[in-house]
Write the C-alpha cells for this entry.
Amino acid sequence: MTEPALFLDFDGTLVEIAPKPDQVRVDPALAPALARLRERLGGALAIVTGRPIAVIDGFLAPERFDVAGLHGVEKRFRGEVSGGRAEDHPELRARIAELHGAVGHLQSVLIEDKGASVAVHWRLATPSDAERAQAVVEEMAAALGDSYRLQLGKAVGEIVPASATKGTAIRGFCAHAPYAGRRAIFFGDDLTDERAFATVNEDGGVSVRIGAAETIATRRLADPEAVRALLFGWAEGAPIEPDALPPA
C-alpha cells in the first residue's frame, strides 16, 4: 500500500467557521495531535489554507507545520518560507484604498488585507450589502486583469494571484521528500477547495469534502468535529484508510 501524504485545509475543516476570521476556536488537542500524526507520516503533513502562514502559526502554536498559505501564494517547507511578499504585488496594493472606499462603509462587511491577496467577507452583512460587496470585489478582480483571479467561497470573495491554487501547492509539496511518491489525501470544505480536489483526483489521491455541499471530491465527512475525531484516531495509531471514508 502506498504511504499517504496528508494535506489539510484549516477553516471549516480543522476548525468550525466563525462569524469573523479572528474568532475561530481551536481545540487545544488539535496541534499536539497533528504533530503526532506528522511524526507517524514521516513528516508528510501540511496545512493548505487561504490564511497567511503567520496566522496559522498563531492558531497552532507552539507547533510549526509545513504550510501553503494564501491559497499557495506563500509556502513554508522544511522551515523555509517563500513567496507571499506584499511588495511583489503593486497592482493589487494600489487598489486597496479604493476597495476600502467602496465597501468600508457597509455594515458588517469586513476587508481582510493579507498583503499578497485581499478578501472581502460579508457573512454578517444584510443581503443588499452582501450583494454590493460581492459586486465590488468582482469588478476589482476583473479590472486587475489576467494576473489575478477572484476566488469565491462561503460569504467571501478573495482576489489572489492567478498562479496560486491549492492544487498547485499540493503538487509542489509532492515533488519533494517526504511527500514524493506518496498518495495525497486532501481535506477541504469550500468552493476554494474544489480546484484542489480536481488536482488530487487527477493524480490518484483521495479528496474529502467536509459538509453537505455538491462536490467533485470522492469522500465526505460531516463537519470539522468528524475530521478532528478521525485525525485524533490516526494520531493514536488507528489504520489510515481514506478509501473507507463515506463516499461523497
